[in-house]
Amino acid sequence: MPDQAKPRVGLVAGTEDATPLLFHVALAPDEYLQLDDVVVTVRQVAGVGPVMSSGVVTQVRARHEGASFGSDVFLINSGVLPAQVQEIAEVTTTRVDPECYVPPRPGEPVHRATGEERARALYFDRMDRKVPVGMGRDGEPVFVNLEFLDGTRGGHVSISGISGVATKTSFALFLLYSIFRSGVLGNRAVNAKALIFSVKGEDLLFLDHPNKRLADPEIQQGYARLGLAAEPFPSAGFFAPPIPEDTTGRPHVSGRTSGIGAFWWTLREFCAEELLRFAFADAEDERNQYTSVIHQVATRLRRDAIAAGTDGAVSIEGRLLRSYAQLVEFISDKLLDEDHSVRAPWAGPVTGTGTINAFLRRLRSSLKPLGTIVRGDLPDSPGRRISTENQQVTVVDLHNLPERAQRFVVGVVLAAETARKEAAGPGGLLFTMIDELNKYAPRDGSSPIKEVLLDIAERGRSLGIILIGAQQTASEVERRIVANSSIKVVGRLDPAEAGRPEYGFLPPAQRGRATLARPGTMFVSQPEIPVPLAVEFPFPAWATRLSESAGDPPRTPATAASTHGEASTGNGAVRDPLRRLPPVDDPPPF
């Protein structure tokens, strides 16, 4: 029970109806309550004993009692008309202990909840595994229950907010950092991984570099109060697409020059794994008949393609294909052949010319987007495969790819990871972070990527795959994905978006505040707490761009191997061809 000796901030108001779920507090002179404060009041109930009602302040208003007209404020201010200023705080109940749902009685004292009272009010005392997500308005840590993140009782996270203001990506990264570094995973941390798809420049290619601002004592103290070390991600691997038309397989990046590998798919893999469907990853109307042609062609490629050499090229019906353009040309020749006996096995026996032409138009439009990442002219090295096995955090940089190619990569990688997790069985965790989720799983239409994401949302937690989706507008994301997210997070919102029913979990006051929230402030909703909590998370301890990097990442066995030009450890690092040359102390004169 709460400490009755604590100073009260006011009394339960008698001018407003008090209910077990909502009551009001009349503030004492010289006292105040602000939004998000946690308060406690106690009522003695016959036969039950003291009943504690705890809640979060969701609105505060002040008025002149005794004034009838708007102009009375001038008379009151000059002392002509007697009146008194009264502040009333609205409190939304979060917990009643014991669970005897009676309203607080008017006149009962109310005080701020601190320490154990605050933990009980916000159900932190019932969380066996707490993940710190930031600081509350009172400067104390706010937690989410890991059981709603790791699939035990729920899974998946939905983060919404205006691009560039809501800091969605920064919060998602901090959440991952907190999960991995707070110790809450225990022994499971060894098998916990994160897969991050980056679409906004090279900002996420320096997560293993310390941030220059770490010398600021306030940043250090912010992490310390949450029980975290202010450090970059210690185990990270990075992948980027190869440079277009480059035959050496160098990654297409400019800021990071080491410890990053290029990824692509060979023509042999494209045919054998039936990846053609991901080339049509735009949201489509399921009534389009050319989808049957996609499956027919993909099946023929799988059956007829034969590996040719060691560079990923294939031979189909005696024709050697070394590029995606040649593969598209081969398919076109088969589908447009006037001989029905040649065309039918590839298009289907009753497929019309219009359907074939619709398929070919869309296939040919994929030439430029996919030509860079579907190759038959590069050495088939093992380090080019995107893998999460050899590092805790894997970043896949997509910003240099066209949007259609981005969807292809996301769809293929997620499908492969889902299949791998399904084959391996439960036991590990894979947190998959996707920005601009509305592009991959829009509310309307259907696509292979959307089906993969829906599968993850609906049964991924049983496989140990947790989706962390970020989007500007949750109203444009498939409803079932948002509905299956146990944790919902909102940053700065557009006023029109804030009025959508997808944000019905926010009280009216918080909806209004979300349109004014500053960067770094998020509203976090979780199943155990009926009111979303406003949190501020610390400044990133890792560099989010090259200009913020304080230098090289901490030396680990993986980075040491890359530095000395040894074999790649799975993050795609390649040998340095100049590593055996003697060092040059001074540049040659000009």
UniProtKB/TrEMBL annotation:
- Keyword hit for Nucleotide-binding: yes
The record's region (Disordered) falls at: 546-590
List, alphabetically, the InterPro entries matched: P-loop_NTPase, T4SS_component
User: Bias regions of kind Polar residues — which residues?
Assistant: 559-571
Key words, A-Z: ATP-binding, Nucleotide-binding
SUPFAM superfamilies documented for this protein: P-loop containing nucleoside triphosphate hydrolases
One term of GO molecular function: ATP binding
Q: Does the keyword Iron apply?
A: no
- Any idea what this protein is called? ATP-binding protein
